[in-house]
Amino acid sequence: MAETKYMTVNMGPQHPATHGVLRLLLELDGEYIVKTTPIIGHLHRGVEKLAEERTYHQFIPFTDRLDYTAGMNNNLSYVMAVEKLLGIEVPKRAQYIRVVLAELQRIAAHLIWLGTHALDIGAMTVLFYTFRERETVINILEHVSGARLTPSFMRIGGLAADVPENFETLVMDFVEKFPECIDGYETLLTKNPIWLQRTKGIGILSKEDALNYGVTGPVLRGSGVKWDIRKKFPYSSYEDFDFEIPVGSTGDVYDRYLVRLEEMRQSTRIIKQAITNMPSGEVLADDPRVCLPSKDKVYNDIDALIRHFKIESAGFEAPEGEVFFSAENPKGELGFYVVSDGSNMPFRIKIRNPSYFNLAALPKMIEGSLIADVVTVIGSIDIVLGEIDK
Amino acid sequence: MDYHEMVDLLKERFPEAIQGYKIFRGELTIDVDVRSLLPVCAFLKEEAPFRMDVLTDLAGLDYGPDASPRFGVSYQLTSTVNLFRMRVKTAFDEGTEVASVTGIWKSALWVEREAWEMFGINFVNHPDLRKLLLSDDMEGYPMRKDFPTKGFHYEEPYKV
């Protein structure tokens, strides 16, 4: 008997289908994968270390640059972790606007995923349609925050500003027509025989493995676990809205595709309800220790000017203790573990980044499958390397 | 069952291992002796009323060069069965062997590697303890409090 030798192939870090700088070491038996070793860290910036010498407010812009396709959601998760540490109650209007912005961002992130995922598999047309709709969403977010990808719009205690006057009509126009667009993408893919052959039964992750690997988000739901932080541990008034959690059955690439498409439909439902029942009032908590005074007050009132200067330069002191808060991001559960020693800077911040845990399950998903399916499975777990590498 | 009853139950089962607990902002944190970490975690995963089936996150901690015990590990656990979250914490000095929980939750595979490379926490029985985010030639443990943010020798050009 001849000795069996496996061939080792290096995939990435410069590979268009790895969605960033991900390197995979593939051990191959012919066309079949025996073992996969993901090598990450090419984009490591040491965000957690940087957080330790910045005030709580100063860390907000760093969160945008984790998952750069979902800036609003990252902001939300971080500011809510700090609000939990401080015990601040956010005004109802700010909570509703946060929900609208987070869901719009979720739609934008899922549209990037759908376009690039289909492109990876070879369906080029979808990208043009998804990016057309994404542009509308990004324009709305730009109208609100002034930035397309890195909004930094959330503040500890609320929002940087109230939304512009025509915000509600812009959003309502979009969510009225968007479900039809999703139907349009479905006509291109859902029953397309090539799409079915490339995605059905590929990259299966069982329910038990999904939980054991700590996988979250659409990947977990694709494996048939009905788990969504928005429902299970509601935050920012998500308990007020009526929406479904889509789940898959087999846990393959096709199930994850269906789950994400349905999530976009549910997001439009949430946005409609939030806009219809939008409360009036303030968008920043009335907490002089933490929240900046309005510009009007800063220019006309000496106390407000002093307070503004104090919060901007020295920040605020958080009570001693530690909290973990996580929110449902487009990629999964994004959590912030914030440890405070009572000073104005966090003692330690640990980011629970969803793509990182989802990618750790990749070797399990593609074990024994064909090398051509690696790209399909990477696309289906929807990774962003900026978030994985921190 | 409220937090106090849960802690009592754990104390009854592991009288030596449970060193204390804290409830802050509705979150339960239990301090566990580093030597009994593995049996406590296995118990928390399997037994009612805990059934913590997901290890959501694992964080290394450094309390500074003068602190004793200096290091810590914090395990964030979630039960999808009982809709419940809690945290297990352990503290120890440099060089102490910390049992790897990869046998209980596979999600610890990468986070333990990260805590090892960033803090120098010595996990034993981890199947694949290599650098994860840092390059192989990186020296020192960057997340330690005595490691400067700029790094050492930052003014020297990188040797290729």
Notes on the structure:
The complex is a heterodimer of chains A (390) and B (160). In chain A, the strands form three sheets. Chain A has a three-stranded antiparallel sheet. In chain A, strands 6-7-8 form a three-stranded antiparallel sheet. Chain A has a two-stranded antiparallel sheet with strand order 4-5. Chain A is built from 17 helices and eight strands. Chain A has 390 residues and is mainly alpha-helical. Chain A has a domain at 89-289 and 357-388: Cytochrome-c3 Hydrogenase, chain B (Orthogonal Bundle). Chain A is globular, with a radius of gyration of 22 Å. Chain A has helices at residues 47-51, 60-64, 71-86, 92-121, 125-145, 167-189, 193-199, 207-212, 218-222, 229-232, 253-276, 295-300, 302-314, 354-360, 362-366, 373-381, 385-389, and strands spanning 7-11, 23-29, 32-39, 154-155, 158-159, 321-328, 333-340, 348-352. With 160 residues, chain B is an alpha/beta fold. Chain B has a single domain, classed as Beta Polymerase, domain 2, CATH 3.30.460. Helices cover 21% and strands 29% of the residues of chain B. In chain B, the strands form two sheets. A five-stranded mixed sheet of chain B has the order 1-2-5-4-3. The longest helix of chain B has 12 residues, at 108-119. The radius of gyration of chain B is 17 Å and the shape is elongated. Classes of the chains: A mainly alpha (390), B alpha/beta (160).
